[in-house]
Task: inverse folding
């Protein structure tokens, strides 16, 4: 135990005496605090900010609203082209053009229209093959392209109005029929995924960064002695369990401390200027204590699990250069776990996949936290998952220590994990 | 304290590298583990240090099973290496503390040994900025600063210039005088000869010769004589001896200025001397042959390979 503490202190010093570590930590903490505090000091800044969509909040754009067009109409109109094929006798060109406000140009053939689109004379073109059969021609279809869809909806709306008018309704009656507005207020008894999304996302991301950044560092610190050949002195004077635990935990503590300082600075500064923000950042900083506590447990445990696995990887190789190669499979597993969690957040946080993932130690850190933050989960499930994760940490630690001892004087090619496990279990 | 190693065997995979190594050494004396490259010296030392286990064999200290944890051991591994990015003082203190020495004592010892090895000005320098010889001295300071009862040095002289080798020799002699149990391996015989009481020569994983160095030398030189003549070259003398004296002796070796002969068993020195004078050999030197450790080593380990 005493040796463990000596190793831990020495290894922690490696981090804390590292200038770039200290500078990065305080710089990031400072930047976050500044982002939270500075806007409150600029008069009028927050009032304008109010209407701007915040990060992580979906803003639904309503396209079939008449007023949108009128606003658009005041602005510059898009240059669009239209061509009515000879089969489409029932298409009224004027009606079609008036359905969507734009600078319409009529073409006499499909080829001419396509050429115009290609030469960027017009933004896009529509080929009317029939009353309800339109081809949308565009040069490059962007992800957020709305023209085709807007035109389709507008045209359908015009047809609907025409139909209703043919049936004898007056224009006022049609307008009135569309003016019923039902207001729905939400009363969430469980969890509001929308409101929790932002902080859940950020917290999951914090663990992601910790594991990606610190994993390699931990593996490197375990390999260091093998790389510089101090290992023989070390294993003959220290218990190898103390050595590897000290190293892994030092990395883990440094990581948690770094994340804690950076996030903490955000929380603390928000606490001071909360009123100035008018609670606008509550969606980021107002995390229920219970969720935060469970996050702390799962984040730390799953981080530890991965830290020990990276320690194990460090024990397998004898040169620091070899680490990145052998650590990629583990990173893959972690990234998969991260993707599952993110997928669960955006779709259904209580899906079968998430339920399964929240009990598998490699994925449970993220998955269980997402379920706690955004879905519904029973207390025993959380406890069971935490115990499983904790037990895996211990197993990973023991294995890492065994492999470390076995691989002590194994210089040269990296040992295969399977061979190492076999040999380690033999002793 | 008496350390005894008995019938140590070790295989790596299918290959047995130690075929039953035995030797013993007591406090206040030094054992030189000699052998050519690949003879099994480092393997033996590593088993002794519990870096890995032997396949069979017993190691005892005063009759009880030997455990590295019960003794303070200063170990200089063959694989030299410390933390290149750390300052000399910092890592020496750390390594001493790992061996159970308090922080304060570790610092004192660190300073003391850096002075003793003559590298005190590098205390706050990063190890990688030191020359190889100085790094080696830092490593030796590391080995000894826990004030060990047992000192095990694997090839301690490799990489040292004659001046530094002298410092190390003095340090080892001090350790022996202080009653420490010293084991070291080497293939530089001249150093071993200076302060080793006991030797064990390893060859291909076997101990081919072991025991007290003085006795070994005496035993080795027992039947042998050295002679040289004033008016003949050693070659001429050797020829004359092998032709005219073959009933009394065999010429064993012709050296630069001497001839070494082996007496035929029943013959004693006066008989040979008398005969030499009768034959008119103008003797320059006639004496007992005292073999150097090098001669013994070459004879015992310089075999078939």
Result:
């Amino acid at each position: 135990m005493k040796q463990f503490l000596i190793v831990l202190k020495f290894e922690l010093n490696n981090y804390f005496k590292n200038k770039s570590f200290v500078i990065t930590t305080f710089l990031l903490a400072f930047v976050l605090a500044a982002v939270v505090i500075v806007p409150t000091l600029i008069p009028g800044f927050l009032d304008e900010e109010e209407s701007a969509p915040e990060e992580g909040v979906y803003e639904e754009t309503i396209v079939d609203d008449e007023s949108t067009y009128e606003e658009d109409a005041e602005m510059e109109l898009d240059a669009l082209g239209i061509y009515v094929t000879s089969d489409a006798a029932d298409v009224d060109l004027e009606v079609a053009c008036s359905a969507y406000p734009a600078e319409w140009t009529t073409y006499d053939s499909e080829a001419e229209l396509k050429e115009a689109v290609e030469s960027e004379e017009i933004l896009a073109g529509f080929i009317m093959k029939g009353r309800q059969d339109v081809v949308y021609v565009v040069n490059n279809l962007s992800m957020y392209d709305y023209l085709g869809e807007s035109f389709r909806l507008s045209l359908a709306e015009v047809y609907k109005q025409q139909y209703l008018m043919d049936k004898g309704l007056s224009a006022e009656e049609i307008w009135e029929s569309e003016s019923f507005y039902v207001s729905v207020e939400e009363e969430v008894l469980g969890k509001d995924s929308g409101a929790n999304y932002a902080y859940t996302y950020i917290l999951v991301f914090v663990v992601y960064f910790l594991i990606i950044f610190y994993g390699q560092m931990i593996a490197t610190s375990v390999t260091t002695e093998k790389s510089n050949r101090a290992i023989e002195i070390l294993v003959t004077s220290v218990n190898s369990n103390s050595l590897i635990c000290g190293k892994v935990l030092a990395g883990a503590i440094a990581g948690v401390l770094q994340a804690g300082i950076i996030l903490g600075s955000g929380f603390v500064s928000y606490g001071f200027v909360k009123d100035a923000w008018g609670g606008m950042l509550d969606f980021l900083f107002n995390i229920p204590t219970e969720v935060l506590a469970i996050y702390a447990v799962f984040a730390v445990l799953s981080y530890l699990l991965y830290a020990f696995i990276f320690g194990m990887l460090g024990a397998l190789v004898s040169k620091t250069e070899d680490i990145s190669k052998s650590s990629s499979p583990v990173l893959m597993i972690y990234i998969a776990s991260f993707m599952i969690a993110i997928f669960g957040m955006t779709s259904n946080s209580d899906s079968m996949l998430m339920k399964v993932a929240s009990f598998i130690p490699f994925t449970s850190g993220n998955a269980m936290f997402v379920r706690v933050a955004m879905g519904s989960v029973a207390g025993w499930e959380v406890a069971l998952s935490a115990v499983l994760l904790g037990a895996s940490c211990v197993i990973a630690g023991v294995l890492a220590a065994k492999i470390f001892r076995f691989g002590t004087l194994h210089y040269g090619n990296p040992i295969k994990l399977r061979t190492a496990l076999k040999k380690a279990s033999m002793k | 304290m008496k350390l005894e190693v008995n019938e140590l065997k070790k295989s790596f995979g299918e290959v047995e590298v130690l075929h039953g190594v035995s030797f013993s050494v007591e406090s206040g004396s030094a054992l030189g583990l000699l052998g050519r490259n690949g003879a099994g010296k480092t393997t033996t030392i590593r088993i002794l240090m519990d870096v890995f286990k032997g396949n069979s064999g017993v190691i005892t200290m005063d009759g009880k099973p030997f455990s590295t944890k019960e003794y303070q051991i200063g170990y200089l591994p063959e694989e030299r290496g410390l933390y290149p990015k750390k300052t000399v003082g910092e890592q020496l203190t750390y390594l001493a503390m790992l061996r159970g020495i308090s922080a304060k004592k570790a610092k004192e010892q660190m300073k003391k040994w850096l002075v003793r090895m003559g590298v005190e000005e590098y205390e706050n320098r990063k190890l990688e900025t030191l020359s190889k010889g100085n790094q080696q001295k830092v490593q030796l300071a590391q080995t000894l600063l826990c004030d060990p009862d047992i000192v095990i040095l694997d090839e301690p002289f490799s990489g040292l210039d004659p001046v530094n080798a002298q410092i190390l020799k003095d340090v080892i002699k001090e350790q022996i005088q202080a009653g420490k149990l010293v084991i070291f391996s080497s293939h530089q015989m001249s150093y071993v000869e200076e302060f080793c009481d006991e030797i064990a020569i390893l060859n291909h994983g076997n101990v081919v010769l072991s025991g007290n160095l003085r006795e070994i030398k005496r035993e080795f030189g027992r039947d042998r004589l050295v002679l040289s003549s004033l008016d003949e070259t050693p070659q001429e003398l050797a020829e004359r001896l092998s032709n005219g004296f073959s009933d009394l002796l065999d010429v064993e070796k012709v050296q630069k200025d001497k001839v070494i002969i082996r007496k035929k068993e029943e013959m004693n020195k006066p008989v040979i001397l008398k005969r030499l004078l009768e034959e008119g050999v103008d003797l320059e030197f006639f004496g007992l042959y005292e073999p150097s450790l090098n001669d013994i080593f070459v004879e015992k380990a310089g075999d078939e390979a």
In short: The radius of gyration of chain A is 31 Å. Chain A has two domains: 2-40+191-426, 78-174. Residues 36 and 270 of chain A are 6 Å apart (CA to CA).
